[in-house]
């Protein structure tokens, strides 16, 4: 899983505001890709909340004087206590840098920690869950749902490593469900002779126990402050479903366009879900594209064949791409050809022996 693109700087509106009487979810993103989500009260310092969760983020003086606990708050709103300029300059503060020993959250936040999870003496969370639903109706895709013993916190768009039952092997899959629920869903490509594909297609049954670790990844939905363009290839649709589902109860003011490309008609899935989301989220629209010219689909070829430079909003747009490497590179070339550089470009690549929609 790979992501790239400059994050928006400085404090901003979070993905979902909370009641001040409830603790906020603070996502700590470590340099090695591990994400730990802790709870922090509105009147609690982030450093104290991390310590309470037994996570030793960098910390020294605790007085806002040394700068050891300097991190970057990628999204969310907060207040800062007293500190000296040697620890945090005004310019750094304007860019979203914070001191965890002085920061109190006013919303959910995402904080990048300049250290590995091992250095902070924490590790990725492991969850056990029960397989409650499995849908094999698509010839090329399997969707399934797991029920955990507690709500699973993650950032919409992130992934986990799911253990293939009966083996020591894991496979990385993005959530296709909204965060903070005990029921989590996944959408996976049925790869011929694939280890997880074979299990899901031939062996899995409801009641099976499955284990996963995570969340991981820096491909997730940032605060929506401008138009958003989402480009999905095949089962790269999964993280976008998670993002869109997370917006249902807090729709953004900005428009969102999803272009969903697949190889064949059989690969088109979750169209009913997308239609429901379109009705629920003002400003959200989507279209589908099938590579196969003989498919009879209204739009054939690659998703970039059906995009226009106007949909880049003269660069005032955040672009998210999830699909096989050729798709990501195809989108880059299309943007270069359009002569427009988006405000941010976030992508996640995955490999599949049958991937080709781009």
Mind explaining what this structure looks like?
Its cofactor is [2Fe-2S] cluster; FAD. Pfam families: FAD_binding_6 (PF00970), Fer2 (PF00111), NAD_binding_1 (PF00175). It contains 6 helices and 18 strands. It has 3 domains: 89 residues, Ubiquitin-like (UB roll), CATH 3.10.20; 91 residues, Beta Barrel (Elongation Factor Tu (Ef-tu), domain 3), CATH 2.40.30; 122 residues, Nucleotide-binding domain of ferredoxin-NADP reductase (FNR) module (Rossmann fold), CATH 3.40.50. The chain is α/β, with parallel strands linked by helices and 358 residues long. The chain starts with 23 loop residues before the first strand and ends in a 9-residue tail after the last strand. A 6-stranded antiparallel sheet has the order 11-10-13-8-9-12.
Layout of SSEs?
Layout: E1 24-29, E2 35-40, H1 46-52, E3 70-75, E4 78-80, H2 90-94, E5 97-99, E6 103-105, E7 109-112, E8 126-135, E9 141-152, E10 159-163, E11 170-174, E12 181-189, H3 195-203, E13 209-216, E14 228-233, H4 237-247, E15 256-262, H5 271-280, E16 284-290, E17 318-323, H6 325-338, E18 344-349
Parallel strand pairs: 1-7, 14-15, 14-17, 15-16, 17-18
Antiparallel strand pairs: 1-2, 3-5, 3-7, 4-6, 8-9, 8-13, 9-12, 10-11, 10-13
Short recap of the structure:
The protein is α/β, with parallel strands linked by helices and 358 residues long.
């Amino acid at each position: 899983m790979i992501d790239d693109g400059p994050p928006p700087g400085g404090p901003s509106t979070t993905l979902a505001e909370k009641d001040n009487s409830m603790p906020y979810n603070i996502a700590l993103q470590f340099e090695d890709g591990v994400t730990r989500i802790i709870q922090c009260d509105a009147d609690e310092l982030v450093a104290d909340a991390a310590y309470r969760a037994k996570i030793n983020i960098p910390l020294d003086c605790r007085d806002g004087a040394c700068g050891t606990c300097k991190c970057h708050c990628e999204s969310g709103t907060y207040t800062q206590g007293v500190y000296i300029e040697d620890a945090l300059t005004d310019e750094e503060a304007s860019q979203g840098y914070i001191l965890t020993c002085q920061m109190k959250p006013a919303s959910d936040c995402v904080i990048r920690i300049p250290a590995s999870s091992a250095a902070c003496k924490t590790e990725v969370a492991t969850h056990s869950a029960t397989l409650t639903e499995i849908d094999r109706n698509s010839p090329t895709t399997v969707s399934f749902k797991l029920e955990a013993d507690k709500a699973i916190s993650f950032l919409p768009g992130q992934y986990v490593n799911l253990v293939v039952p009966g083996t020591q092997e894991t496979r990385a899959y993005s959530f296709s469900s909204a965060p903070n629920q005990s029921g989590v869903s996944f959408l996976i490509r049925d790869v011929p002779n694939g280890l997880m594909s074979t299990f899901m297609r031939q062996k899995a049954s409801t009641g099976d126990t499955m284990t996963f670790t995570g969340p991981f990844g820096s491909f997730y939905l940032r605060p929506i402050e401008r138009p958003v363009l989402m480009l999905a290839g095949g089962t790269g649709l999964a993280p976008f479903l998670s993002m869109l589902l997370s917006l249902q109860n807090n729709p953004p003011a900005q428009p969102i366009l999803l272009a969903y490309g697949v190889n064949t008609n059989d690969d088109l899935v979750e169209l009913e879900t997308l239609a429901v989301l379109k009705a629920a989220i003002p400003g959200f629209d989507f279209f589908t594209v099938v590579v196969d010219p003989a498919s009879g689909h209204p739009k054939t070829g690659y998703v970039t064949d059906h995009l226009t430079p106007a949909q880049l909003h003269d660069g005032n747009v955040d672009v998210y791409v999830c699909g096989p490497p050729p798709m990501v590179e195809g989108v880059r070339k299309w943007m270069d050809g359009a002569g427009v550089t988006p405000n941010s470009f976030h992508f996640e690549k995955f490999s599949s022996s049958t991937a080709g929609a781009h």
